Write the C-alpha cells for this entry.
Amino acid sequence: MDPYSIFADIIAGRAPASKVYEDDDVVAFMDIRPMTPGHLLVVPRVAARCLAELDPVIGGKLFQVGQRLAGALRASEVGCDGVNFFLADGVTAGQEVFHVHLHVIPRTPGDGFGLRGRPTTPPRADLDYLAGSIRGALARAGGL
Ligand code: 5GP
C-alpha cells in the first residue's frame, strides 16, 4: 500500500485546502470533489492508513469534531437539513486516500446522495450466530 497521502501534505501545509477547523489532533476541510455542497473531511494529524492503525481516542475525536461540524453545517449558508457521516476503511469499502478520514456530508431533499444496496432480512439465528462470532473476536482482541 502506498504510504503517501495527499492529506499528509495538506496537514503539513504543503498542499492547499479550504479549512474549517483544526486543533492538535485533527484538521477539517472541504472535500475537493463534494458529494453535496459543504461536504467536509475530518482528518487526524497522525498518519494512520486505516482504522486498525488509529488510536481509538483519536477516532473518538473524529466523531466529536464531526458532530460539532454537523451543527455548523446546519447553521451555515450550506442550509442543509440533514447530515450523513461516512468512513471508508479499506479498498473494498471504497477507500481511495489511505489516511483515515471521516466524511461529513450535508443533506438536502432530492440531493441524489445515498447508499446503494438492499437491506436483507436474515433469520434471528443467523444474526445470533454472527453476533457470537463478533463477540468472540472482540474477546480475543482483549475486549473494548
Ligand atoms: P475515500 O474514498 O478515501 O473515503 O475519500 C477520499 C476523499 O478525498 C474523496 O471524497 C476525494 O474527493 C477527497 N480528496 C482527494 N484528494 C483531495 C485533495 O487533494 N483535497 C481535498 N480537499 N480532498 C481530496
About this structure: Strands lie at 19-22, 26-30, 40-44, 82-86, 102-107. The first strand starts at residue 19 and ends at 22.
